[in-house]
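Why do we care about 3D structure at all? Because function follows from shape, and shape follows, mostly, from sequence. That is the central idea of this module. The next example makes it concrete: a single protein chain, its amino acid sequence, and then its structure expressed as tokens.
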Amino acid sequence: MLRGASLKGAPGSNSRGRGVSGGRGPLRFSLPIRNQVLLLLVVGAGVSVGLSGFVGDAPNRLVSGTPVSLWAASGTLPTVGMAALGAVWFAACWLQPSRPLHLAVGVSAAALLLLALVAAGQAAVHLAQPTKPAARISLGPAFWIVAACAVLVLGDAL
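And the structure:
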């Protein structure tokens, strides 16, 4: 095509030289992400819980532990509670920023941080065996990532 040539009047173009759809595709519906930082944090926390261990279970201090997922270690209730609070964060990514929204996100972040601590305690109680006093339960990478994301979300909400 020649430099400076226009597509005006060509079949399939509008008066501005773009395609009939206006240069966007056939679907014009879009839902803008209003809080990209929150979206990154909720996806990071969700991926870490899904792919890494929430706690580690080691037979003694010398051997590194095997990772245990959140739902296997602490049960259904803390897992569902953490997922529900994560869903609040996920929905808040697309809502118009306002004072009540920031308050709700901040409260849910504090609740998620406390729930992560409770889930880790329940996991330790569940995995501890009285017949093996040398066994050690440690916090796994998913716990630390969830806790860090909750603290960062709390800071972002303030």
